[in-house]
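Hi R.,

Here's the chain you asked about this morning:
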Amino acid sequence: MADEITSADLDAWLRRSAAELSAHADELTALDSAIGDADHGTNMARGFKAVLDKLDAAPAGDAPTVQALLKSVGMTLISKVGGASGSLYGTLFLDMGKAAPASTSISGADFAAVVAAGVAGVVGRGHAVVGDKTMIDALEPAVAALTEAAASGASAAEAAQAAADAVTIGRDSTVPLVARKGRASYLGERSAGHLDPGAASSAILVQALADTLAGDAAGEGGDAA
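And here is the predicted structure, written out as tokens:
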């Protein structure tokens, strides 16, 4: 990638994510009611509302490091979101933070590696692989697309959009799958035909990143879509 992502960009991403998860909370809960505990949308909205509160409470003027920001998000999600969602999404952001630099900006290529580290942490925590009908079905293709774009020299906005395109395909791929992990796995064959709620919320986060960086690119370039 040709440009850098700042902690201010990530702050904007988290704020957009909180808004999108709140707007889609009922939809996510409806998905979860079919194959899970019927609380995914509520939990994610509550968790990211707590993230938003944490961002708003930060002292004005001093930008946090990328590392500190991501770790703070992870700890907040673990403490405020119940069940598997809190553990998995908390791990995603905590492990991203561990891999991130203690600086207020990060190169696009390094950010791709940070996201990959976070997803690897989720895999280690939940032991899911592509095909198990989980958030990993959405996140693994997104990481692959982000990494490939980084290697090709795409801008951060372009790479994030490639990841968003991939995450949408990964999310939708969960519909015909039979769940092999999580609460949905208890349903066996009856889990087929339903969109996985974790894959859906993961897609919301990745699309929010793409939309955030596209907005920045439009502001800088004047006519980006």
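One quick note: Residues 197-221 form the longest helix (25 residues).

Cheers,
M.
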